[in-house]
Each structure stands twice: as structure tokens, then as C-alpha cells.
Amino acid sequence: MSQYSLPDLPYDYGALEPHLSGQIIELHHDKHHAAYVAGANTALEKLAEARDKGEFGALTGIEKNLAFHVSGHLLHSLYWQNMSPDGGGEPEGELAAAVVEDFGSVDALKTQMSQVIATVQGSGWAALSWEPVGQRLVVHQVLDHQDNVAAGSLPVFVIDGWEHAWYLQYKNVKADYVTAFWNVVNWADVATRFAKVRSVTLP
Ligand code: MN
After folding, report:
1. How many angstroms is it from 187 CA to the middle of ligand 1?
2. How far is it, in rounded angstroms, from Cα 90 to Cα 76?
3. Distance from the CA of 1 to the center of ligand 1, in angstroms?
4. Could you give the CA distance from residue 12 to residue 141 in angstroms, rounded to a whole number?
5. What CA–CA distances, in Å, run from 150 to 83, 127, 189?
6. Which CATH number is 116's domain given?
7. How far is the CA of 33 from the centre of ligand 1 (A)?
8. Ligand 1 center from residue 171 Cα (angstroms)
9. d(C-alpha 149, C-alpha 131), whole Å
10. Could you tell me the distance, in angstroms and rounded to a whole number, from the CA of residue 56 to the centre of ligand 1?
11. pLDDT tens across 27-65, in order?
């Protein structure tokens, strides 16, 4: 009855080397991401159980777990697709035009996202998202997996800033991870996602 499942990686564990080690990708996908998938399914099961029994004493904790694990599953699923062994370079076409419109330049976007990762307190993400109220792209400094985001925003491009994403290779120098990340960014995937979500309007 599981609602969520771990997606396969779109490349081999070592495909993003030397920028991200195969050991990191294997642990990150097979252990960390898998744990969020399991946690999301557990939260759904516990909610069904609570409804069946009419016992909602633990509801607050289960709801927190649901938000945390579903968000973790979503962001990691995006993260794998947002990277490619053939990545790097610059965005093109309508994505590039939208970035220039909303951030001033591609470099300004990259700087903002890099600074979001560098300055996040604790664990979090940088997320480029379609914000359907203002009809624009924004960058969020996501805390954990689920906090500090404008409701309704749809992420199209994320960078994982959690220590498990980089510490084995980059130790305490998180800035080097972010610098290396830009060599594997899959702008074509981001552009495809942007084209899908930009027609969403709220409210
Ligand atoms: Mn992660």
C-alpha cells in the first residue's frame, strides 16, 4: 500500500565525479533518500490508523513527519534530475529570459543560490521555484526540507545543503561543494520543469 517509492538514479553512482563522489551519491540516494520515502509512507499509515481508531493524540507529530518526509522525498527526487554528468554551462531560451527578468542575470541567480547554501543555519536547501501568486521565479532558503517557503511555490531546481550531501568529500569547506555543483547542474531539466509549471496561477 506504499504511496511513495524511491526513484532510480538517472546515472551511475560515480557519474558526477570528480564533482560529487560516487560514495556520497550512493549513500545519499540509497540510505538518506530511501529513509525519507519510508518515513513518508509510515506517516500515511499512522494517519490512516489514527482515523480508523479515532485516536488523534499523536496527530501533531505525525503531521510534522508527513511534511518533513514528503518534502524530503520530493526535493531529493528533483535534485537527482537537476544534475547530469553532461551538466554545467548556462540556461538557455525562456528559462534564461525568465531568470534575467526576475534576478537581473544568471550570475545573480547563481550567486544568490550559492549564498543561500553558504548561510543556511543548520540543514536546508536552495530552491528556485515558480511563485504562482506573483507569477515569477523566486529563490527560497528552505530549512530542513519543508520550512521557510512561500505556500504554493513549485520548485524546479534545488541544491541540497545538508551536510550528508557534501561532507565526506569537502569536509568543512561547503563553498567548494557549491562551486563544484555548478559543473553538474542540468539546466535542460530545469527548463523542462519551468515550462510545465509557469502556467500555474494562484489563487
Ligand atoms: Mn539530502
Report:
1. 20
2. 22
3. 25
4. 29
5. 24, 11, 23
6. 3.55.40.20
7. 7
8. 16
9. 10
10. 31
11. 999 999 999 999 999 999 999 999 999 999 999 999 999
